[in-house]
């Protein structure tokens, strides 16, 4: 009896144990299926990570909360989690493992730059657009007097200065104002001859001999003409003829309006002759501005072109407009500049000779293809740009530059409107040693490089790493 009872109890225990094990394994299997489903759902979600901080990841785009860098979307099939990607680093460098390289474009010598590397080096690209290129030329100039408005005053006869009216340098004079008076023996003798000729005409007016009367008229005309040649005015000659009195000192008048720049007639009794320059008078109502233009700017400067000047101390408040009058046909061997002469109206005499000015000219180079200046790499003998082909690929291409104006450069050959060119971090891309082989395969500026052979060449992939300095012990 006892044995049968023991057997029954043992059988019941085995059955309970088997049922418990079945339930336990069923629960484990269900949990495994649930975890697999969750893993697949997590895999299907987009994963974003920070190129600088690989440990940070997110399921939506945005900026890294640590460094504010834009998050990069993880590309490539079969991605498990962002944590696994962040754990993949190249040995001995600390840089993230390269993402799967997409298929290269149809052109050869393309360079692959992963998106995270573009973020690190700050690479940007903009499209080439058509526009008007305006070149701004800025040079320094100096105000000078107009040499065609310069007048030198000489005495036509030898004599002695009696009185000086223009008695200081800088004094303004008008046309017809007296400058000085002069006593000349020759001039006094001519006046006497003129008065005698007048008296002879009065005496011979009633003469029956016609030749005698005509001879007196000829003497009067000759004396009058001699006085005119010695700069005696018609009013002074008329006074002699009316009053019949000789004048000891004759006044010399200014023929022009202007400012006295130099004078040699100082005081009473100074002897002068026709060879002596007594006064220099300049008309400052129009002045010249002489600018020094570099030889690289000379092809863009034309006679008659508009020019603006600004005085350095005016603070940009006042500008004056003039025009280019003459371009000197030689260069200064020391400064390698050519002198450009511009003409400006100066009614209020605000422009004074020897003043320094800032000159600006805007020259339209024409309608052409434009790119930013930092997009063009110049080796000295040739220029090239990097074309953004998309998917992380950039392609070097030779171009021909027409002109530069400020931050824009005109492209004459090698580029089409709408093509995107790299404008930042060109020096980093160009410094890569493997780029030499790509540049060697570039075509002419007129056309993009064509593929050689049936297969595609292996693209260049730029790798960048950041090494941190060792911590001090």
Molecular structure report:
The chain is α+β, with helices and mostly antiparallel strands and 473 residues long. It folds into 4 domains: 37 residues; 106 residues, conserved putative lor/sdh protein from methanococcus maripaludis s2 fold (Beta Barrel); 93 residues, Efflux pump adaptor protein, beta barrel domain (Elongation Factor Tu (Ef-tu), domain 3, Beta Barrel), CATH 2.40.30.170; 134 residues, RNA polymerase II/Efflux pump adaptor protein, barrel-sandwich hybrid domain (OB fold (Dihydrolipoamide Acetyltransferase, E2P), Beta Barrel), CATH 2.40.50. Helices cover 25% and strands 32% of the residues. The chain contains 8 helices and 25 strands. The strands form 5 sheets. It has a 6-stranded antiparallel barrel with strand order 6-15-18-17-16-19. Strands 7-14-12-9 form a 4-stranded antiparallel β-sheet, with no helix packed on it. A hairpin with a 4-residue loop joins strand 17 and strand 18. The longest helix has 43 residues. The chain is rod-shaped. The relative contact order is 0.16.
Radius of gyration: 48 Å
CATH architectural label of the largest domain: Beta Barrel
- Measured by DSSP, the beta-strand proportion falls in 25-35%
In what order do the strands lie side by side in the largest sheet? 6-15-18-17-16-19
Q: The biggest beta sheet, please?
A: 6 strands, antiparallel, barrel
CATH first level of the largest domain: which class? Answer: Mainly Beta
Helix/strand/pairing class, anyone?
Answer: alpha+beta
Amino-to-carboxy terminus distance: 83 Å
Q: Please give the domain count.
A: 4
User: Could you name the CATH topology of the largest domain?
Assistant: OB fold (Dihydrolipoamide Acetyltransferase, E2P)
Helix content: 10-25%
Question: How does the overall form come out from the CA principal axes?
Answer: rod-shaped
Query: What's the CATH H-level superfamily name of the largest domain?
Result: RNA polymerase II/Efflux pump adaptor protein, barrel-sandwich hybrid domain
In terms of per-residue confidence, which ranges show pLDDT below 50 for 5 or more consecutive residues?
Answer: 77-99, 432-436, 447-467
